[in-house]
Specification:
Layout lengths: L1 H13 L6 H13 L35 H15 L19 E8 L2 E7 L6 E3 L4 E2 L4 E6 L3 E10 L3 E10 L3
Antiparallel strand pairs: 1-2, 2-3, 4-5, 5-6, 6-7
Length: 173
């Protein structure tokens, strides 16, 4: 061990010998004496900017659906108010994940109520009950059975507003 340490010290000190700085100084002096290259080009004066007034800001956008859609706006607003999820509700931990990323790993019956065990992509198992939320589409757990859970998701569509759709998570074997 001492020999190895001694060899490392000798190798380290060998790097401290004369680095031939004279040759480096000579090369740098030659570079400094060389001409500097092309002279910079003079930029021509740019034309003066003239602003353009956009007169169609109040007109219908060409990227939206035809005028008939405006009649549906009232219907969409009503659907929005009836089925819109509660934005003031505190988000639950499993609402950060897509429903497809969550796995049902088991169900239990505790105190007369069913409890589902969900594994998120992070791997830590979370227990949920009916009335809990999961998934990014405001999924409300509607029913927990022995082999699956039924979820009601609320999804927004620009044409039809908020809509409910059923989804299930099935126990994997």
């Amino acid at each position: 061990m001492k020999r190895l340490l001694g060899l490392l010290c000798i190798a380290g000190l060998a790097g401290c010998s004369d680095p031939q700085l004279g040759q480096l100084d000579q090369t740098l002096a030659e570079i400094r004496r060389a001409p500097g290259g092309k002279a910079p080009e003079i930029v021509k004066k740019l034309p003066e900017y003239q602003s353009l007034d956009y007169r169609f800001s109040d007109a219908r956008s060409p990227f939206l659906s035809p005028e008939g859609v405006r009649e549906n706006v009232l219907q969409v607003e009503q659907a929005t108010s009836e089925l819109a999820p509660d934005q003031q509700r505190a988000q639950e931990p499993l609402e950060r994940f897509q429903l497809q990323a969550l796995r049902l790993v088991g169900t239990l019956r505790m105190g007369g109520r069913h409890v589902a065990l969900i594994a998120p992509p992070e791997g830590e198992i979370v227990s949920v009950r009916e009335g809990n939320y999961l998934g990014t589409n405001h999924g409300l757990i509607n029913q927990i059975g022995p082999r699956e859970i039924t979820i009601v998701e609320r999804v927004f569509s620009p044409q039809q507003g908020w809509q409910e759709r059923q989804a299930t998570l099935t126990l994997e074997e």
